[in-house]
Amino acid sequence: MKKWVYACLLTLLVTGCSIEVDKPSTTSLPENELAIEEGDRYLDEITAKKGNFLDIPESFEEEREALEVQIVSYDIDGNDLTSTTVITEDESYVSFAKENHKHKALWKLFSDLIPSNDREMVKEFLIFTDGRDEVLGYVEPLDNSSEWRLAIDFEDTINEKDFYYTLIHEYGHLLTLRDDQVTSTILNDDDEVQEAFIACDYYFAFNGCTKENSYMNSFFQTFWADYYEEWLNNDVEWDEEAQVAFFEEYPDHFSTDYAATHPEEDIAEAWTHFIFSTYPEGSSIADQKTDFFYQFPELVELRKEILARLSSSLKE
Ligand SMILES: [Zn+2]
Q1: How many CB atoms lie within 10 A of CB 225?
Q2: Distance in angstroms (rounded) separating the CA atoms of residues 32 and 228
Q3: Which has the least CB within 10 A, 46, 91, 144, 194?
Q4: Which pTM value belongs to this model?
Q5: What is the pLDDT confidence band of residue 163, given thresholds at 50, 70 and 90?
């Protein structure tokens, strides 16, 4: 069975490429006007300090090439790191593996960004590296969807914009795949995956069947139902040429090329655009995907909260 890791290649995080087209807008008037305005005000502060977080000029590169060295992991208890496990025996990293204060500082970048109630699913914090750039961070479930590992490359925190973009993107996966969203199933082989796929009436996520009213299933039914079969048949998830072809076939559908690689990457990228942009003015499908999140008052609140936290974390 293929191993699923929600890795984010820095090199895949290209500039947004939504194109405005003449389509009727399906956007409804957003609720929570005040939370939106406050969120936008924090976004202005952040932009004044660091520029546009969606403006990450990088080129296409599809494969993760460097080997991941896992250095040290911690259990998470609320805001605190508990019980350390040093993993690496690589001499280049053994001394860093003991510098707990540096690990705490890394964890703090995430724990300061996301309110504690909204990150209760993160039960393990792993510090790794694959050298500069490449993968900045990823999330993956531990035994089931209620417990997740957050992994961060300690060498990739230098470019703050890339780093926070990645944290927000990864949080998009946690938000949309956590256990109140997905009926988690442990699947041991391809046959079990196939059976579970057939038995699932909604979008089938890698960790189980999504619930009917989950963010992921709603997003999928709205935006992916028409071309999911094509995406599956063309093996877009794994075939790089098919990814480019799929992205080009639907030029106004995806906020980044990475979004076209998978429905779950699409929602994570749309979530990241929801956080780091104002209410979309255009009516492209990519804009509608950003707009999607405004129908959920709790996410509008969370956007405001995250942007407030980020604004106070960032230095001028
Ligand atoms: Zn991802």
Answers
A1: 10
A2: 32
A3: 91
A4: 0.88
A5: very high
pLDDT of 213 > 80? The answer is yes
Q: How many CA atoms lie within 13 A of 300 on its CB side?
A: 18
- How far away, in angstroms, is 272 Cα from ligand 1 center? 10
Task: Compute, in angstroms, the gap from residue 258 CA to the centroid of ligand 1.
Answer: 9
| CA triple 238-57-222, angle to 5 deg | 50
- As a whole number, mean pLDDT of residues 26-55 equals 86
Cα of 195 from ligand 1 centre, angstroms: 25
Q: What is the mean pLDDT of residues 121-133?
A: 92
State how far the alpha carbon of 188 is from the alpha carbons of 144, 194, 196, in Å.
Answer: 13, 11, 11
Bridge-based pairing state of the strands 148-153 and 69-77: unpaired
* pLDDT exceeds 90 at position 1: no
Residue tagged 């999607």 (tokens): 292
Using alpha carbons only, give the angle 295, 225, 263 rounded to the nearest 5 degrees: 75
Separation of CA 4 and ligand 1 centre (Å): 10
Q: What is the 3-class SS of 200-260, one letter each residue?
A: CCCCEECCEEECCCCHHHHHHHHHCCCCHHHHHHCCCCCCHHHHHHHHHHCCCCCCCCHHH
Beta bridge partners of 141: 148
171 Cα: distance to centroid of ligand 1 (angstroms) = 9
The alpha carbon of 7 and the centre of ligand 1 are apart by a number of angstroms equal to 5
Do 185 and 196 meet the contact criterion of CB atoms below 8 Å apart?
Answer: yes
